[in-house]
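Let's do one together. I've listed all components of the complex below, 233 residues spread over two lines.
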Amino acid sequence: MGYFWALMSVLLVSCAQLIMKWAMMTLPLVNRPHELLTAFLALSPGAVALLVGLFAYVCSMGCWFLALRRVALSKAYPLLSLSYVLVWAAAIWLPWLHEGFSMGKLVGVGVIFLGLLLVCLPQRKR
Amino acid sequence: MSYLLIMLASLLSCGGQLCQKQATWKRGRRHLLGWLAFSVVLLGCAMLLWLLVLQRVPVSVAYPMLSLNFIFITLAARFIWHEPISLRHGLGVVLIIAGISILGGAA
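Okay, and this is what the predicted structure of the assembly comes out as:
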């Protein structure tokens, strides 16, 4: 059950990032605070998406807390590195974000993932 | 500039996590609540900066770069709490730095 909550947390945090990205793309730029405020007060789709994204982020922290009550941190931690790969793949694949694929980015994300696994996987006692 | 923002957001969220660790370190309600409150402030600032980053950088580049967190946390564990760092952990950190550089170069 602990792994279920950890996995839920990873999925939620990944969704939160994608939703927040879409929201910030849709909302007016931050250097136009007046327009940004107006969009917020009018509850434009971008503003609603931002709130949904932030809510998903808070939920993911809740799931992580539930996971840690059941599984040791060292066992749940490696799952977190999945979210980096998930967000990368989804941002390229989802049509409403359509971020470009490049070999260099793939290698970069792959190397980061390997590094995270080395850092996070529990150490075997000899 | 955008990469600087990512680094700052990562530093702030690390600061928030370190405050949580500090909160559990000593007994006492006041100590706990004070550090937790400070942690929430830092995490809030990190989130605001992050939203700014999302307006400037593709999320497929920016988000993997947040693994900077693991580097800062490792450094803090080593130099603030004097926790030992294994060879494998150190190698992982080197790979993360390399990956972020490659990603930054490719973007």
